[in-house]
Design brief:
alpha+beta, five-stranded antiparallel sheet, two-stranded antiparallel sheet, 10 helices, 7 strands, 52% helix, elongated
């Protein structure tokens, strides 16, 4: 019984050490590219072999990522941060999107990224009699969706890699990002702050939802039929989405 208790205590200490390491790495990454094994060991007062095994386990589980000798929070770390506020995010954003769907007449959508997948949180049908059926538009190929593209642009590297592992890399449905142009496309999206597409019968727009620290929470998007989407209407949709995103950032 005593031996079992000692083993349990060791396991609990290991869990605490892992969480302490994750907290320290996340703090370091606010200003630097990552934390080294020696720096983490010094901070936690832990032996290198023991700490290396802990970090290796966390990396294999997706809570840490590593580039050379530098450790960074992994995709699961961002997932945890988002999942803790998803319910509140939906409650805060839904009335804004519902109002936007009524005022602009166009369909709205809110999505997020969890475990390397795009997940729909809410859909709102536009008030216009003729409009885009958001449930149908949202079933398009994953890389053709503007919310997917803008979330990938603002996600951290670990999350992007997890997404590519789960879904493959962009293909013919995102031709601008194929053939080695992916990073350039993502950089351009970050620069302009929104994703858009036209052509065919539907135009689509999306902006990221970020918290005050820059963590990606998700994305919101709008769909409009091409026949009434002139430049003025396009500007109105983008302005509406950006105003909602700004209000979300203030609250989170």
């Amino acid at each position: 019984m005593k031996e079992y208790k000692n083993m349990a205590e060791v396991q609990v200490r290991s869990v605490k050490k892992a969480l302490d390491a994750l907290d320290y790495i996340a703090k370091v990454c606010l200003e630097e590219d990552g934390a080294t094994l020696s720096a983490i060991a010094a901070e936690l007062d832990e032996k290198l072999p023991t700490l290396r095994n802990i970090l290796k386990t966390m990396e294999s589980c997706g809570y840490l990522s590593r580039s050379g000798k530098l450790y960074r929070p992994g995709a699961k770390h961002s997932d945890l941060a988002r999942s803790g506020i998803i319910k509140r995010l939906v409650e805060a954003t839904s009335p804004l999107l519902q109002s936007a769907a009524e005022n602009t007449g166009e369909s709205m959508v809110m999505a997020t990224m969890i475990n390397g997948q795009r997940e729909i949180l809410k859909r709102f049908q536009g008030s216009n009699e003729i409009g885009v059926i958001v449930e149908v538009a949202d079933k398009d190929r994953i890389y053709k969706l503007e919310t997917t593209r803008i979330m990938l642009a603002f996600a951290d590297k670990a999350e992007r890699q997890q997404f590519f592992t789960m879904n493959g890399y962009p293909d013919a449905f995102w031709p601008e990002a194929a053939g080695g142009n992916l990073e350039a496309c993502l950089s351009q999206l970050r620069k302009v702050g929104f994703a858009s597409s036209g052509g065919g019968h539907t135009c689509a727009y999306a902006v990221p939802l970020l918290n005050s620290s820059g963590l990606l929470l998700g994305a919101i998007g709008a769909y409009a039929p091409s026949f009434r989407n002139d430049q003025q209407h396009e500007e109105k949709l983008l302005q509406t989405l950006m105003e909602i995103a700004a209000k979300v950032k203030e609250q989170f």
